[in-house]
Amino acid sequence: MAATQASGSQTTGHQLSGHVIDALQYSNWTRRHFEDWRAGGMTAVGVTIAYHERARDTLTRLGEWNWRLRENADLIRPIRRGGDLDAARDEGRIGVLLGAQNCSPIDDDVGLVQVMNDAGLKVMQLTYNNLSLIGAGCAELDDPGISRFGREVISEMNRVGMVIDMSHSAERTTLEAIELSSRPVAVTHANPRFFHDTPRNKSTDVLRALGESGGMFGFSLYPPHLADGAQTTLDTFTAMVARTAEIAGTGNIGIGSDLCQGWDGRTIDYMRNGRWRLVPQAERERFAATPWPDQPAWFQRSADMPKLADALRERGFSAADVDGIMGGNWARYLRDALEPTG
Amino acid sequence: MAATQASGSQTTGHQLSGHVIDALQYSNWTRRHFEDWRAGGMTAVGVTIAYHERARDTLTRLGEWNWRLRENADLIRPIRRGGDLDAARDEGRIGVLLGAQNCSPIDDDVGLVQVMNDAGLKVMQLTYNNLSLIGAGCAELDDPGISRFGREVISEMNRVGMVIDMSHSAERTTLEAIELSSRPVAVTHANPRFFHDTPRNKSTDVLRALGESGGMFGFSLYPPHLADGAQTTLDTFTAMVARTAEIAGTGNIGIGSDLCQGWDGRTIDYMRNGRWRLVPQAERERFAATPWPDQPAWFQRSADMPKLADALRERGFSAADVDGIMGGNWARYLRDALEPTG
């Protein structure tokens, strides 16, 4: 992987946003994780509350987060509208953006887009890895693009200000969502296929379409999305960032680490298998016995966020660009994306 | 029934609220009903969205109301916070307050109080006619008072600003709720037992406790709650209002008509029987063939609201008291009750 020199704007004296945002984490939450967010200087974090949960179970997940937000209100606060991002930063608390990695929270009911949005679900993937009622996930056998229901859901998500997240979706479904959505969509957590060629990562066509439409792409630090797994160097990583910036635009990229802490392999079993296949007991036990993949040495936890900023500066990105990639770009995107239009 | 002379304050020049509020209606909604609200000069209406619906079905009911509110946005708007009441009045639109006549919308999950409140459910009865997870309804065999879960739910409803409605609850459950709640509770739609002695109406003890605690009592115009059914005269009705004012306070009473339009007897079957008993087919057919009870001639529809105001003036209530009973009292109560405390 050749190291590309960053070609971002070299603005100095430019007003920095002061935002440090990670668009996706999913941990077995304790207060320690929120303290770690603070140690990383973070201003907002997107958290996953549902993978396969349908509407009813999503309500319980929302209730659990409401309580967690109250119990840790000195450290964290909810992000529901665009203005909440800067409010969180100014209060010195970390904003929490609740999201789902599937459209299962709305069941088959387009009216639930607004209901879930009102209840606090602000980001939703249109698919996880499999076929959903909306389109195809990246592990699916075929990809029919966006369904009739999906077009209605996209229109409602656009209206209420719920972020459309295509991280796990298949190619055609992803490109059609970008095309059909009247507002820019996001890929909260993935990497480019040119960096690591797996269906879960995104093609150059997707990167380009995202950038041209004003969307956002969040770089993942989850080892299976990286070129050399946990052995991937920070230098290789920032070279990939620089090349992506050339394709999607320096203003359209950010971090979506996919950092998962405090779980064992049973959670991967749940994420991968949900209830859609019958898992042989031997395989289930193998999942349970398998530890979570190791993180790269340079990104073990949220407190390591400043190391990414340092490495981006070393790569040649300007202070303004580093500020944008570390959080300013997500803040600018979300400030608009979370506002209802009708 | 002796006609009691109203003893309300005779203030003139007092600032009138301009509110005309009906705390409870349940119709087979069409735009015609909202036009009728306007014809009645109404500023806000409480509508029932659930009788036996558990959490999942409540979401669909919320979605249906969200869409109805959008389709008729020239006439109606949602009431979610205290300030929305005056905003609706000032915009010339009728505010809609969504409520449930049961605690079924939260299932067995205290976290769903906030989730449902955030999603737009702003009023909830702790019981319908039967035993709930919280307490006993007025038709139940015995009344254990408020349960352990109920105490948690009351505390959460107090916190988030969801109105506690005891209209259908049994005596002990109702009195305990008034006592346990840190904020005044409401009986949105009932009449005093001294007017018509049925378990569904409220004892003088309840009227007194409600008034002393700053709660609200909404008078029903549903024939089974009236002294002489549809034959009840407006004069008898306002005499009852005057006597209730002496017990509960002129500032603690309002209208909660329980007006139900566009239904046939199958809806009464659903309301009474839900899924808790097996209804013999012959009884089911009898329900289906029975028309909805006739309304009194002087309260056929929402457009008849001014007739109530006229009759209250004739009864001797001052302009300020009539304004309060017709809507000002509900407005003052709800302005506070709908605001979260934590």
Automatic annotation (TrEMBL), chains A, B:
One of its GO terms (biological process) is proteolysis. Signal peptide: none annotated. It comes from the Bacteria. One of its GO terms (molecular function) is metallodipeptidase activity. This is Zn-dependent dipeptidase, dipeptidase homolog.
